[in-house]
Amino acid sequence: MAAALSHLLIFFPLLLPLSTTAQTSRNVSLGSSLSAGGVNSSWVSPSGHFAFGFYRLANRNLFLLAICFDKIPEKTMVWFANRDNPVQQGSTVQLTEDGRLVLKDHQGQLIWEPKSINGSVSYAAMLDTGNFILSSNDSVVRWGSFDEPTDTILPTQVLNFGGKLSSRLTETNYSIGMFELRFLPDGNLVLNRLSLPTGNAYEAYYVSGTYHSGNQVIFNQSGYIYITRSNESVLNLTPSSPVLTEDHYHRATLDIDGTFRQYKYPKAGASDGSGDEGWSVVKSTPDNICTVVENKEGGSGACGFNSYCSLNDGWAVCDCPPGFSFIDESNKFKGCKPDDVVQACKLDPSMQKALFDLKEMKDVNFPWNDYEKMTPITEDKCKEACLDDCRCMVAIFSSSTCWKKKLPLSNGVTSTITVGKAIIKVLKANYSQLLLPPDSKEKDQATTVFVGSMLLGSSMFLNVAFPLAISLFVSYKYHKRSLKVQRNPNMLRSNLRSFTYRELEEATDGFNEELGRGTFGTVYKGTMQLDSMATSVAVKKLERVIEEGEKELKTEVGAIGRTHHKNLVQLLGFCNEGAHRLLVYEFMSNGSLASLLFGTSKPTWNQRLKMVFGIARGLRYLHEECSSQIIHCDIKPQNILLDDNLMAKISDFGLAKLLRTDQTRTSTGFRGTRGYVAPEWYKNMPITSKVDVYSFGVMLLEIVCCKKNVESVVGNEEKAVLTDWAYGCYRRGRLDMLVMDDQDAMEDMKRVERLVKLGIWCIQEEPSLRPCMKKVTQILEGAVEVSVPPHPSSFISSLG
Above 80 in pLDDT, residue 403? Predict the structure, then answer.
């Protein structure tokens, strides 16, 4: 390690980034413009290496406003303004007389402009570094394309805290793709796969390990990429042998497969010694994207669901197993779908072997989310077990062990390291149409005619096939009628299980072990068989719900059941039998945030930060990403539960509509808990998602300080004190008083200040001043700055 650092120090002067102020440029004067498809379509840098202008997308009459390498045959784009919104011919970009850079489409509608320009602008320039800048008269850069990178960074470019790159969707679609590189405010450089369209990040598959020490990511003029550290050392991300930028163009791009690659390209008249033309890879991070993206808690892996990943010349290639095909041929990272509608569990069990074949794939694995493991077992027995199990679509066999998988398959990968194979269950072609569900009486009759004609038309198979078809048809009709009687359509779509009261009574040993009591009822611990495994569950007995309970319960629980997010407690099933209303949830082993936050053993600062992020993302999902918005109405630490890894999950979401109007914990008629309740509840104001933002703000301050917001005063009344105290400490510049007992937090005061300011914005009395949860998550991630907040009641006071 010491030798490596000394080697870096030898050429440390070369690691300094080149200042853009030293670059020569051809100034673009105010009032200048470019037109898509016109003669005047780009502004070129002095050397001609880079150009800023309109570039036509391949095979489409659409244009991106972009920066590209202009002296090479492959006009490689390194930045684009309107990646999600290409424009047509006749669109324009103009540097207006008042110093704005605006992109308008052919109809004159504003498409894009820089996020923020810090000061007056006198001219623009395309620099030889690849940075397009807006500058003042005294050559102070007010904005640059380097400030808003897309998927590429160039020599002399720097990523500060919150900086990020987003891959494109495909080679020809420049929209935001499935992977993201971020330089986090904690000093780590990370790579994540994203969940589209929400943009939520799954667990990082690359982490630089510069936690609390990283300061900047720099791509210097000598072609080195490195992270500067607070102890004045550097973490080099480039091979140690220098690559001369005098002879080569350089770029580093987050590619569509999630790999961050540094490239070189020989300039005219130079030889790179490889004999190859075009861009060549200098360094890839990670080395094998297929094996490092493993999302155990959700997500599909490097490729989409039901597909598997393999490397081809260092690039990830996604393929479909037998019996599956790509959802979108133009975007193979989107995953695969079954070729046939498989509803095997609606069929008679005796039909399984007659309907399915097994296909083998050597060295292919889907390593996570198996629902059953059998060992020791032979390969033949493994195959037989999968054929006999209607849920099993894939079995993985290796070293006398068999893992059963059901759809969707995730984290698929080819690997020759482990000796094994994937056994894929594929529907036989002769029977594929028999599994299509009839939707009407006419289709039922058509199916009958089809079955009859197929069987009677071939005397060779009559004796065998006729009983098979009749049994299949009768079984299907029976199950269809059964499902129609027992399950509400909302429940069916949400995939919830319906339990009898007797089942839940036995699972909880007569409702013996109480976990807690809340607004909606009492929660008991239970154990039941789910997917052939004994699983701990939490059973909530709903009490004093609205009188019209049956219809309302089905509607609301159906909506809750269709939600799926790692920061929401998962609803597994329900009971709606007679007067009994019960919900069955996943069991959360570490109890509530309240018991941990206000107990004797408090969570660490880093654990608390992780909880804040999780709660914010869960609320953002409920407010903005569900098919129908869900307002919780009772956000508090008691309703935040913690799993084995202390991941925070929101509970009791979506149940507010089930309360009777007289069910309340206070006498004022509002819903929620004192100390967390937004002012709207006290007044004749509409209730929106901002009530949850208010409660989140209170809880955020509690998590920072590990103190309750309310305390008992004279007469056993409760008074909110933490919010006032936190604002007072902030105004006096004494935030250290909030965390003085927490050494880790004391060493992270910039983060403490950011969180406290965010919390104060969230508890503003005027709802319109509170940020939405999307902006809250952006602030937490460092993508958006948080401004100085006013006193929470200043807006109301100013109105008199």
Answer: yes
Q: Is 167 in contact with 152 (CB distance < 8 Å)?
A: no
What is the predicted pLDDT for the residue at 299? 77
Tell me the per-residue pLDDT of 502-561, one tens digit each, with 9 for 90 and over.
999 999 999 999 888 876 788 999 998 877 778 899 999 987 665 445 556 666 677 777
Q: Determine contact, residues 152/174, Cβ cutoff 8 Å.
A: no
Q: What is the pLDDT of residue 718?
A: 53
CA distance 50 to 154: 11
For the purposes of burial, counting CB atoms within 10 Å of the CB of 783, is it exposed (0-12), middle (13-18) or buried (19 or more)? middle
Each as own residue / partner, the long-range contacts of residues 518-527 (CB below 8 Å, 24 or more positions apart, any chain) are 518/638, 518/639, 518/652, 519/634, 519/652, 519/655, 519/659, 519/663, 519/665, 519/671, 519/673, 520/545, 520/652, 520/655, 520/658, 520/659, 525/587, 526/584
What lies within 8 Å, CB to CB, of 288 at 6+ separation is 311
pLDDT of 457 over the 70 cut: no
262 strand-pairing partners: 252, 283
First to last CA, the chain: 66
Q: Is 497 helix (H, G, I), strand (E, B) or coil?
A: strand
Of 340 and 723, the structure prediction assigns the larger pLDDT to 723
Q: Which of 241, 258, 126, 269 is nearest to 205 (CA)?
A: 258
What is the C-alpha to C-alpha distance for residues 735 and 728, in angstroms, rounded to an integer? 9
Give backbone dihedrals phi and psi of 22, rounded to 5 degrees, phi first.
-85, -5
The set of residues, in sequence order, having a beta carbon less than 8 Å from that of 188 and lying 6+ positions away, is 207, 208, 209, 210, 211, 214
132: which strand partners? 126
From CA 263, how far away is CA 223, in angstroms rounded? 10
Residues 6+ apart with CB under 8 A from 106: 36, 87, 88, 89, 90, 91
Alpha-carbon dihedral 546, 551, 556, 558, rounded to 10 degrees: 150
Those residues whose C-beta lies under 8 Å from the C-beta of residue 440, and which sit 6 or more positions away, are: none
Say if CB 194 and CB 179 are below 8 A apart: yes
Q: How far apart are alpha carbons 712 and 188 in whole angstroms?
A: 42
Structure-block tokens of residue 107:
């109809």
Is the torsion defined by CA of 121, 125, 127, 131 positive or negative? positive
Alpha helices in 673-793 (DSSP H): 690-705, 722-731, 743-746, 749-762, 773-780
Instruction: Look up residue 380 and give its DSSP letter.
Output: H
**Could you say which DSSP state residue 102 is in?**
E
- How would you list the strands of the sheet with 571-577, edge to edge? 497-498, 571-577, 580-586, 533-542, 521-530, 514-518
Cα–Cα distance for residue pair 187/182, rounded to 1 Å: 10
Which of 346, 392, 397, 342 shows the shortest CA–CA distance to 371?
A: 392
User: For the packed helices 605-620 and 773-780, what is the interaxial angle rounded to 10 degrees?
Assistant: 150
324 SS3 class = strand
Question: Which pair of structure tokens corresponds to residue 760?
Answer: 């104060």
Helix (H) or strand (E) holding 2: helix 2-10
DSSP letter at 545 equals B
Residues 148, 67: Cα–Cα separation, whole Å:
12
Task: Give the SS3 label for residue 226.
Answer: strand
- Residues annotated as catalytic are 634
Mean pLDDT is lowest, of 329-333, 445-449, 759-763, for 445-449
Of 267, 262, 258, nearest to 239 by C-alpha is: 262
Give me the count of residues in the chain: 800
Q: How far apart are CA 297 and CA 742, in angstroms?
A: 30
43-71 average pLDDT score: 91
Distances (CA, A) of 487 to 5, 483, 564: 66, 6, 20
pLDDT the model gives residue 18? 36
Q: 253, 188, 192, 180: which is closest to 215 by C-alpha?
A: 188
Q: Cα–Cα–Cα angle for 548, 552, 555, nearest 5°?
A: 160
Exposure of 298 by Cβ count < 10 A (0-12 exposed, 13-18 middle, 19+ buried)?
Answer: middle
Question: Is 605 in contact with 745 (CB distance < 8 Å)?
Answer: yes
